[in-house]
């Protein structure tokens, strides 16, 4: 999503709520760091190529293909940018497919087993959409087909899409408190129909200290997701880090809710909302929006090495049960072993420190609905 302008009073309150959730959340889940992260290093990604087409200035989703990449913007106002863009290995646009009607807020991409491109039209900055949507572009088709979905509880802002082993879509909410929620359709998607979604789990994100333009708030949200070409790994990304999970049995929900994340820092990307695996599965590829960057800045695909080492920690990161999303966890659910009094004292001290940081964070640009 594009970020611009100053925070309004309402969004300041939202940021405060996110801060409260961060402070009130349970202890950080166990994580396994990549070698660079374990050594305390947070190396920048290696540039692959620059996107020089001016229509791609607000890239919110990317997937790698055998002959290049597919990208989307996040629902740009400019009609020429409302396309599914196909690029070659040098980041040159070779094809652009228009939507048959205007999408609301396209945020992520995935590719099915048969080569179908799935476009997640799931952004909802104001939490006001009665439905969200998936667009599916079959191989060789000249326009995507729209499929609508609805949440079982309330509207959510979401920016990440995964497909499981049967090509069932999995929507991951953006969060803000360090906990994100997973939703999946209750039936097969059909054009012209609205399919109910069901809550299928939640994930508590690992706590990191990776530098990013949005400080601690940027570490507690999910802005993209991807599956490895062999389906044995998935990755969620924030503005700061990539969280990679093994999927040995094809159960993506179980991997996310009961697995252990390996963390790859993605330091100081301008506004990182996209992630994909390279076709050989050995690298993570990312790209940032460039719309609000200095003149002449071009979106650049960056490469980060993945690790095949096994995760060594065993504590689960979430719950696979159907859950009703809540912003703040009760103290009784805290698993850190701290007593209630100790927890309150620690939270109070953390609040003082965090509020000082919040004063600076509130000066950052807010997410504006397009």
In whole angstroms, the N-to-C terminal distance is 9 Å
Order of helices and strands: EHEHEEEEEEEEEEEEEHEEEHEEEEEHE
| Average pLDDT rating | 80
Structural class: alpha+beta
Overall 3D form: globular
The radius of gyration computed from the alpha-carbon positions, rounded to a whole number of angstroms, is 19 Å
How large is the share of residues in beta strands?
A: 25-35%
Q: How is the biggest beta sheet arranged?
A: 9 strands, mixed
Put simply, the count of helices is 5
Give the fraction of residues assigned to helices: 10-25%
Total strands: the figure is 24
Outline the low-pLDDT stretches.
3-28, 35-39, 310-356, 358-370
What does this structure look like?
With 370 residues, this protein is of the alpha+beta class. It contains 5 helices and 24 strands. The chain has helices spanning 9-24, 35-38, 215-219, 252-258, 340-361, and strands at residues 3-4, 31-33, 46-50, 59-65, 68-73, 83-87, 93-98, 106-111, 117-121, 132-137, 145-150, 158-163, 169-173, 179-185, 194-204, 224-227, 233-237, 241-246, 261-265, 272-277, 283-288, 300-305, 318-319, 366-367. The strands form 5 sheets. Strands 8, 9, 10, 11, 12, 13, 14, 15 and 23 form a 9-stranded mixed sheet that branches. The chain is globular and about 45 Å long. Mean pLDDT is 80; it is low at 3-28, 35-39, 310-356 and 358-370.
């Amino acid at each position: 999503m594009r970020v611009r302008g100053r925070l309004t009073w309402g969004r300041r309150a939202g940021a405060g709520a996110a801060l409260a959730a961060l402070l009130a959340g349970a202890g950080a889940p166990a994580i396994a760091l990549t070698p660079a992260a374990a050594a305390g290093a947070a190396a920048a990604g290696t540039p692959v190529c620059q996107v020089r087409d001016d229509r791609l200035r607000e890239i919110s989703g990317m997937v790698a293909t055998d002959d290049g990449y597919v990208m989307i913007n996040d629902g740009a106002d400019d009609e020429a940018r409302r396309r599914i863009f196909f690029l070659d290995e040098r980041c040159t646009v070779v094809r652009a497919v228009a939507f048959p009607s205007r999408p609301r807020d396209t945020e992520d991409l995935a590719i099915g087993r048969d080569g179908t491109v799935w476009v997640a039209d799931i952004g909802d900055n104001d939490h006001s959409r009665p439905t969200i949507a998936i667009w599916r572009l079959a191989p060789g088709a000249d326009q995507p087909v729209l499929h609508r979905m609805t949440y079982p509880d309330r509207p959510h802002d979401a920016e990440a899409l995964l497909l499981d082993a049967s090509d069932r879509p999995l929507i991951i909410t953006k969060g803000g408190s360090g906990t994100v929620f997973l939703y999946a359709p209750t039936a097969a998607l059909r054009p012209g129909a609205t399919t109910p979604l069901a809550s299928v789990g939640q994930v508590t994100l690992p706590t990191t200290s990776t530098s990013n333009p949005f400080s601690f708030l940027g570490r507690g949200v999910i802005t993209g997701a991807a599956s490895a070409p062999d389906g044995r790994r998935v990755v969620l990304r924030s503005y700061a880090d990539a969280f990679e999970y093994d999927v040995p049995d094809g159960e993506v929900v179980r991997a996310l809710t009961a697995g252990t994340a390996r963390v790859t820092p993605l330091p100081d990307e301008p506004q990182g909302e996209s992630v994909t695996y390279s076709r050989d599965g050995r690298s993570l590829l990312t790209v940032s929006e460039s719309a609000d960057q200095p003149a002449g800045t071009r979106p650049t695909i960056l490469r980060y090495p993945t690790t095949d080492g096994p995760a060594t920690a065993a504590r689960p990161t979430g719950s696979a049960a159907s859950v009703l999303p809540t912003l703040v966890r009760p103290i009784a659910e805290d698993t850190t072993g701290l007593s209630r009094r100790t927890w309150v004292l620690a939270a109070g001290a953390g609040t003082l420190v965090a509020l000082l940081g919040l004063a600076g964070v509130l000066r950052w640009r807010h997410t504006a609905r397009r």
